[in-house]
Amino acid sequence: MDMMTEEKRRAATWFRSLRDEICAAFEQLEETQETGPFAGNPAGKFELRETKRTADDGSDAGGGLMSVMRGGRVFEKVGVNISEVYGELGERAQAAMAARKGFPEMKSDPRFWASGISLVAHMQNPHTPAVHMNTRMFWTPHGWWFGGGSDLNPCIEYGEDTASFHAAQKEHCDRHDPAYYPRFKEWADEYFYIPHRKRARGVGGIFLDDHNTGDWEADFAFIQDVGRAFLAAFLPVTERRRNTPWTEADKDAQLVHRGLYAEYNLVYDRGTKFGLETGHDPEAVLMSLPPLAKWV
Which residues carry out catalysis? Predict the structure, then answer.
């Protein structure tokens, strides 16, 4: 394996441009929210903070950019983070990588590089579903791959929303391979299942990891369309639901569902575990947690 310097640069640049597009679209939603109980609030804006990661020896190990909006008209809390980190994997991560990827060489050469975008949105209106999206590229001297996807997490499900969200995912997958959507939908259903609750976290979407067909250009083009599918899937759902009247019972249901979301992210989510174990900024890693939640 070579260092893939140019491929890494292109991937990291894409993730940043996707962040810019999504943040602009979300701030536009805030500006155009003119009805409802939060319409009189200032339109939400993203606050930016750079994150830094330091290796055990004190050397630079990359970082990223946190973009978080709190207390908006449409979004109660949304984070859109990008990162580019590198260095050497610790012993636990080396062992996990060697076992999962079949890279026994990780122990003798544990270098890695990773870049990606991660998004979680928790909404003011209980009828507007929460959503998660991420895409990423991972490199080691022993192999590279892409991963990511997006999934919808309503506390009050509407069949129309579920169908349109999945249709947008399918459309973007089908541009590359008609087998992708059914495969990655099934993977999402498995990945976002909460065993101790015996139920799914939401209504699914697509999820993929370790994606390497041997053609980097084709795989990069596909992961770009996974990112592009997000706004195409989520914005129409938000437009349909953001002005729906809600009750205190609806809000209570939202808070209980957020507890489910928090349980999954803290107990099972692979990205959360990797971020914390590799020393990334905990505020950035735990950005996905809801601002308020409830257990009953």
Answer: 132
